[in-house]
């Protein structure tokens, strides 16, 4: 009897440790699910609410509005993205334009996506404009990020300080305002339509981990029975 117990002791302890790990991973994903649902609810509430005037220290991804004059002569490009258009898949980038304000720091505005090749001119409103958008914090480069090209005003990392330095601007806020607006066909720049929506796959991950835990129990029970 003791020999039989010793035979199952090591496999049983290993299976128990693996079972606890799988259950722990599943429970952690359930926690992450509730956390992500809270974030999505906050984003939905912010999107439905009217924009607040831009303050000196806005929260990341806050929906705000700001008034000023665009400096189209200092427009820059950010990133690379292929989109489906009426002409088919088209390469393009995002247009970053400084918005100068009276007696206030300049705001870098991501006006939206523009195709590299286009026939129609850009929709560039003149004079004083009011922009509604959300606050996007600065990004950090990774090992795989292409190098910025300040001389041609083409950037692959959203770094307001680096963009402002390349445009020879002073007193620029340390974030980018991503313009929000209705989607229009063949009108560029094409602004963002919604606030960013982070993916929520935590329920499927939790089911996967709990499912593996059940499979482990079934397989171990079948092995014990056979042994």
Describe what this molecule looks like in 3D.
By secondary structure, the chain is an alpha/beta fold. The protein folds into two domains: 2-43 and 201-226; 54-179, no CATH class. The chain has helices at 2-48, 160-166, 202-226, and strands spanning 52-53, 63-70, 76-85, 88-101, 104-115, 128-137, 154-155, 172-179. A hairpin with a 2-residue loop joins strand 4 and strand 5. The longest helix is centred in the first third of the chain and has 47 residues, at 2-48.
Strand content: 25-35%
Which secondary-structure class do the elements indicate? alpha/beta
**Strand order, sheet with most strands:** 2-4-5-8-6
The 3D shape can be described as: elongated
What composes the largest sheet?
5 strands, mixed, barrel
Total domain count: 2
Number of helices: 3
Q: Ends: how far apart? A: 14 Å
Radius of gyration: 26 Å
Residue windows where pLDDT falls under 50 for at least 5 positions: none
In short:
The protein is an alpha/beta fold and 227 residues long.
Keywords summarizing the entry:
227 residues, alpha/beta, 2 domains, 5-stranded mixed barrel, 35% helix, elongated
Furnish the topology, listing elements before pairings.
Blueprint: H1 2-48, E1 52-53, E2 63-70, E3 76-85, E4 88-101, E5 104-115, E6 128-137, E7 154-155, H2 160-166, E8 172-179, H3 202-226
Parallel strand pairs: 1-2, 3-7, 5-8
Antiparallel strand pairs: 2-4, 2-6, 3-4, 4-5, 6-8
Helix pairs in contact: 1-3
């Amino acid at each position: 009897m003791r020999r039989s117990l010793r035979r199952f002791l090591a496999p049983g302890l290993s299976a128990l440790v693996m079972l606890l790990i799988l259950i722990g991973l599943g429970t952690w994903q359930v926690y992450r699910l509730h956390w992500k649902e809270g974030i999505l609810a906050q984003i939905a509430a912010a999107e439905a609410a009217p924009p607040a005037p831009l303050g000196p220290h806005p929260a990341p991804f806050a929906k705000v509005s700001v008034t000023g004059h665009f400096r189209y002569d200092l427009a820059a490009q950010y990133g690379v993205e292929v989109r489906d258009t009426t002409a088919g898949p088209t390469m393009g980038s995002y247009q970053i334009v400084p918005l100068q304000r009276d007696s206030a720091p300049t705001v870098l505005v991501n006006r939206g996506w523009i195709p590299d090749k286009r026939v129609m001119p850009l929709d560039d409103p003149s004079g004083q404009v009011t922009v509604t958008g959300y606050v996007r914090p600065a990004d950090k480069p990774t090992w795989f990020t292409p190098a910025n090209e300040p001389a041609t005003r083409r950037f692959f990392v959203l770094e307001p300080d680096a963009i402002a330095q390349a445009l020879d601007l002073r007193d620029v806020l340390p974030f980018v305002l991503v313009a929000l607006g209705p989607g229009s066909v063949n009108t560029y720049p094409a602004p963002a339509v919604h606030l960013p929506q982070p993916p929520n796959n935590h329920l499927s991950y939790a089911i996967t981990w709990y499912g593996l835990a059940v499979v482990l129990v079934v397989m171990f029970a079948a092995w014990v029975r056979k042994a």
